[in-house]
Write a structure and sequence with these properties.
The protein is built from 3 helices and 6 strands, in the order αβββαβαββ. The chain is α/β, with parallel strands linked by helices. A 6-stranded mixed sheet has the order 1-2-3-4-5-6.
């Protein structure tokens, strides 16, 4: 009987250790994901005024993490970075690695943006995506959808859209 109890104890102890390891990994993954997103936003934020001004948009303000709470108290929409002047607003989605699904979600946000943010109803709204890792097919897709495409190049952030690019307005 004692040998059976020892075996059960050992098995239970191993299960607890494995469960603890998995929980630690999940916690680290979430923390790493959050810190990656903060890192991307902090890389992009100081560059956007310079980049959009170089494109002829005389923007002056950068706001971070605009959040709309709906009537039920739930988050309805979040914009990572908003770059504005008196007539233009550029909603920027930041990701460490951008996917086509991320671009589609941002396009959906842009379609609802003025309804959710009536303060910007009279602005000429444009969209942008920014990423540290940006596959070429995703960059092309975002470009074709009328979004500015910002990506890391060495130690800098650049707009990858060419001079022929005409941004879509929502």
């Amino acid at each position: 009987m004692s040998i059976e109890i020892d075996r059960l104890f050992q098995a239970t102890h191993q299960d607890i250790q494995e469960t603890s390891r998995v929980v630690r990994e999940l916690s680290n993954s979430f923390g790493n994901w959050y810190h990656h997103l903060e890192f991307v936003e902090e890389m992009v934020r100081p560059a956007v005024l310079r980049l959009f001004r170089a494109r002829g948009l005389d923007v002056h303000y950068v706001m971070r993490d605009l959040v709309v709470i709906d009537d039920t108290g739930q988050e309805d929409m979040e914009i990572d970075l908003m770059v504005t002047n008196a007539i233009h607003a550029i909603a920027v989605e930041c990701k460490s690695r951008l996917t086509i699904e991320d671009v589609q979600e941002h396009l959906s946000r842009l379609a609802r943006f003025k309804r959710c943010y009536p303060r910007f109803a009279d602005y000429r709204l444009m969209g942008a995506v920014a990423a540290m890792v940006l596959p070429d097919e995703v960059a092309r897709y975002a470009y074709r959808q009328g979004l500015f495409v910002l990506a890391q190049s060495g130690e800098a952030i650049l707009i990858r859209n060419d001079a022929r690019f005409n941004p879509k307005e929502w």
